[in-house]
Amino acid sequence: MKASRRAIGRKSGSSKNCREPTTFELLCYDILCQVPKGRVTTYQFLANAMRTSSARPVGNALNKNPFAPKVPCHRVVRSDGSLGGFATGAAKKKALLSKEGVRIEGNKLKDFEKVLFMPSPN
């Protein structure tokens, strides 16, 4: 997971999380760094890239992300194009995505298919 540390660029230990991230979490963060500004992926696409079947552990890992905003967990949305959760609240997630040019109406992404990005397995 040394590549993940380089991609992230700093050690963990923020006030959000006093422990080192797990191997699973580091893999999740590393793959998530593939998603460019102005694009999003889904919890399930991220899980698939990690070669795991369930999106729930991905959501849990992102909720513990001590490397935000370098690891852009705000770029992960639900498979139906709705925003999904965010540790600092939906309004903040919406603002970050809007700032990157992602259009949102209500709680859903507009032109979802156009901004959807499928990360590659590591």
Characterize the largest beta sheet: strand count, sense, and whether it forms a barrel: 2 strands, parallel
Low-confidence stretches are none
- Determine the CATH superfamily: Winged helix-like DNA-binding domain superfamily/Winged helix DNA-binding domain
Instruction: Write down the secondary-structure element order.
Output: HHEHHEHEEH
- CATH topology call: Arc Repressor Mutant, subunit A
Q: Any overview of this molecule?
A:
With 122 residues, the protein is mainly α. The protein has one domain: Arc Repressor Mutant, subunit A (Orthogonal Bundle), CATH 1.10.10.10. It has helices at residues 2-8, 23-32, 43-49, 56-63, 90-99, 112-115, and strands at 41-42, 76-77, 104-105, 108-109. The protein has a two-stranded parallel sheet with strand order 1-2. The chain has a two-stranded antiparallel sheet with strand order 3-4. It starts with a helix and ends in a 7-residue tail after the last helix.
What's the topology here?
Layout: H1 2-8, H2 23-32, E1 41-42, H3 43-49, H4 56-63, E2 76-77, H5 90-99, E3 104-105, E4 108-109, H6 112-115
Parallel strand pairs: 1-2
Antiparallel strand pairs: 3-4
